[in-house]
Amino acid sequence: MDMQHLADKGLVLLGCGKMGSAMLAGWLKDGLPATSVHVLDPYPSDWLQGTGVHINTDLPADPAIVLVAVKPQMMGEALPTLAAMGNGNTVFVSVAAGTPIAQFEAVLGEQTPIVRAMPNTPAAIGRGITAIIGNPHVSASALDLADQLLAAIGQVVRLETEDQIDAVTGVSGSGPAYVFHLIETLAQAGQAQGLPADLAMQLAKATVGGAGALAEVAEEDPTQLRINVTSPNGTTQAALEVLMDEGNGFPNLLARAVDAAVKRSKELARG
Ligand SMILES: NC(=O)C1=CN([C@@H]2O[C@H](COP(=O)(O)OP(=O)(O)OC[C@H]3O[C@@H](n4cnc5c(N)ncnc54)[C@H](O)[C@@H]3O)[C@@H](O)[C@H]2O)C=CC1
Ligand SMILES: O=C(O)[C@@H]1CCC=N1
Fold this sequence. Notes:
Layout: H1 3-9, E1 11-14, H2 18-29, E2 37-40, H3 46-49, E3 54-55, E4 65-68, H4 75-78, E5 91-94, H5 101-108, E6 114-118, E7 128-134, H6 140-151, E8 154-158, H7 164-173, H8 175-192, H9 197-217, H10 222-229, H11 235-243, H12 250-270
Parallel strand pairs: 1-2, 1-4, 2-3, 4-5, 5-6, 7-8
Antiparallel strand pairs: 6-7
Helix pairs in contact: 7-12, 8-9
Bound molecules: 1,4-dihydronicotinamide adenine dinucleotide (NAI) and (2S)-3,4-dihydro-2H-pyrrole-2-carboxylic acid.
1,4-dihydronicotinamide adenine dinucleotide binds near residues 15, 20, 40 and 74.
């Protein structure tokens, strides 16, 4: 199975909101013909309508891939419309949080090849990271195709077991929101120290963006990079003593935040 197969058989995208649009933009940029994509979405955006893909029209009978990108709460309504494509060669790839493979099998048929994926929104600029896991009906070549599709929006990692996806959701799926909140609060702290709002925001964005980029390319690990900033008895050390406080510091706070996300992911799975 390859990209040509995808272009020939077609790709159905169920739900084209923030995640669906980010993925579709990546595929079109990578050269997937718009005519091979069929989108189902009751509220197609202006951007989507300008792409040239088929929107809410008749679907191919056995597309190569159905990419499911509706909210978990809409799944019960949206998925049964595609049940006729189950138990065949069509591979279903779902990016929905907290929706287990078993739930897809129950609606689409036990023999249906299903890949569960957890992406994140930096996908919109090709800098996402997506974790994937397939059920036993997904062939190696089908998993490779799903991997290739998701590689259009960033890095792809393969999981060993489906239950790892709850932790992945808490770290990288929801993670961009934690980092955006860090930018917001760093800028607010700068403002509280007397900086103009726009200057504080520029400093915060460039610091988080630059530190993230450095952490990705540097040979040193993040611990060493942190040490490199921290002069003995200097300003960083003073700040880190607050952030690294055992009870109220970053480690405990972030662990609690990730734990809350993971718990919610498990709750969503229970319906
Ligand atoms: N936003 C994020 O950071 C991430 C989201 N996800 C998952 O991606 C999925 C989509 O999330 P977003 O794109 O953020 O949501 P969204 O609300 O932006 O998009 C959902 C889309 O589904 C459409 N829709 C609603 N009912 C439908 C139906 N019956 N048939 C077809 N389309 C329907 C809506 O019109 C909307 O365009 C969710 O399951 C979420 O868990 C996963 C990782 C990250
Ligand atoms: O908040 C959510 O439920 C989704 C899943 C990961 C990021 N957004």
